[in-house]
Design goal:
The structure holds 2 protein chains of 2 kinds. By secondary structure, chain A is mainly α. In chain A, 39% of the residues lie in helices and 8% in strands. Chain A has helices at 27-33, 81-87, 127-135, 141-176, 182-207, and strands spanning 53-57, 76-80, 113-116, 121-124. Chain A has a two-stranded antiparallel sheet. By secondary structure, chain B is mainly alpha-helical. Chain B is built from 6 helices and 2 strands, in the order H-E-E-H-H-H-H-H. In chain B, a hairpin with a 4-residue loop joins strand 1 and strand 2. Classes of the chains: A mainly alpha, B mainly alpha. The A-B interface holds A 47-51, 81-82, 85-86, 88-90, 92-93, 99, 131, 134-135, 137, 140, 142-143, 145-146, 149-150, 153, 156-157, 160, 163-164, 167, 170-171, 174, 179-180, 184, 188, 191-192, 195, 198-199, 202, 206 and B 97-98, 101-102, 104-105, 108-109, 112, 129, 132-133, 136-140, 142-147, 150-151, 153-154, 157-158, 160-161, 164-165, 168-170.
Chain lengths: 217, 170
């Protein structure tokens, strides 16, 4: 799935961590569970160093009737600090009507929110989607510009990686035809591979596919 | 200065009733100690490192020649003091942001109900939106910096590739 796009289907949790007393202990599980992106704005946590991500209580822990869910894994989500702060104590007065902030486990998010890569904006497709977009300020100017910048960077990196791979192939042909020496080939191929690895790592950190370190037990 | 204050400071010895008797207030001039009656501070406490911040003996001074501290770097005590001073402001900032966010949630819920006050609610909501964006921007400086660094890195990789192609005829 491309960066910033909302999932089509509901997410079924595949991790079942043991019961912790501190909800923050679930953070590493939530990072893996939700593929290191904020469940609300789809921003990868790897896109910048020292980005702050929180454990979000979908049913707010500050509402008395939900206080017992403070450390219940199914009530916890992986959210960036900005979305978590904005979501705050949001919970509908009338639970039968909503509006709810959409989440990947209870809602098919793509039915409510759609990311448009041409504008960088998030389009609301339902009342719940509109509520989520307004509350979390998903179409704030800075966010929109940043998304467009990220998409452009990703596109340029993908193109550069293709160019480097092409150069590597051309170099191998040159060696086969004795048009370059072995020493020239070794030096150049080492540089190309180093640049490919560097470019791939940067690309992965921005598109959210950077591998997550395994959870220590 | 008020009339009372003027009188208070100009009268040489104003008298006040303190509940049990009259006592004489000393004027500013009379409270000043003549210069010849003061003591030399250095003469009284002896010579010691006035800038020492540790708990060591006052007579022990730091040998600047052998000190590994970087010139201009704050001492540990100053760093701790600054951290202590900053802590309440960070907490206050966090508290204020959370307060605004809670108000937004309440107002947004109220805006769905509608009624006569809807326009006012929307206007207040807009103010809170701006306040929240000011206090907690959606995009951090680190994110923008990371994107800029990625672009710089890409330029370097591209330049190296083009140079390689030129040198090896690729």
């Amino acid at each position: 799935m491309s960066v910033f796009h909302y999932p089509k289907t509901k997410h079924t949790r595949f991790l079942s961590p043991r019961q912790f007393r501190m909800y923050r202990s679930y953070k590493r599980y939530l990072q893996t569970e939700f593929s290191r992106v904020c469940v609300y704005c789809r921003q990868p946590d790897s896109s910048a160093p020292s980005l702050i991500y929180h454990v979000d209580h979908y049913r707010p822990k500050s509402i008395a009737k939900f206080s017992h869910l403070s450390c219940t894994y199914s009530n916890l989500y992986y959210a960036c600090a900005n979305c978590n702060v904005r979501k705050s104590t949001d919970w509908p007065a009338d639970e039968s009507k909503g509006p709810y902030v959409v989440n990947p486990c209870d809602h098919e998010m793509m039915k409510h929110l759609r990311f448009d890569p041409t504008t960088g904006k998030v389009e609301a497709l339902s009342n719940f989607g509109a509520h989520t977009e307004t509350l979390l300020q998903l179409n704030d100017d800075a966010r929109v510009k940043y998304r467009l910048g990220t998409l452009k960077t990703i596109e340029l990196y993908q193109r550069e990686i293709s160019e480097l791979e092409m150069q590597s192939k051309k170099l191998k042909i040159k060696l086969r035809n004795n048009e370059v020496t072995q020493a020239q080939f070794d030096s150049a191929i080492q540089d190309i591979n180093a640049d490919i690895n560097l470019a791939k790592e940067t690309l992965q950190s921005h598109d959210g596919t950077l591998p997550i370190p395994p959870i220590k037990k | 200065m008020s009339l009372y204050a003027t009188q208070f400071f100009t009268q040489p010895s104003p008298q006040l009733w303190n509940g049990s008797g009259w006592f004489e207030m000393k004027t500013r001039e009379s409270r000043r100690t003549p210069l010849h009656e003061t003591h030399s501070v250095t003469g009284y406490v002896g010579v010691f490192d006035m800038l020492s911040t540790g708990t060591e003996s006052l007579t022990e001074t730091i040998d600047l020649e052998s000190s590994s501290d970087v010139a201009g770097a704050p001492t540990r005590a100053i760093e701790e003091s600054v951290a202590e001073l900053n802590q309440p402001s960070i907490d206050h900032h966090k508290f204020e942001t959370e307060r605004i966010a809670r108000q937004r949630v309440t107002l947004l819920a109220a805006s769905y109900v509608g009624g006569d006050e809807r326009q006012e609610i929307v206007a207040r909501l807009e103010i809170l939106n701006q306040r929240l964006l000011h206090r907690s921007p959606c995009i951090t400086v680190e994110q923008v910096t990371a994107l800029e660094k990625a672009d710089d890195q890409l330029s370097r990789i591209r330049a190296a590739r083009e140079e390689r192609a030129r040198l090896l005829g690729l």
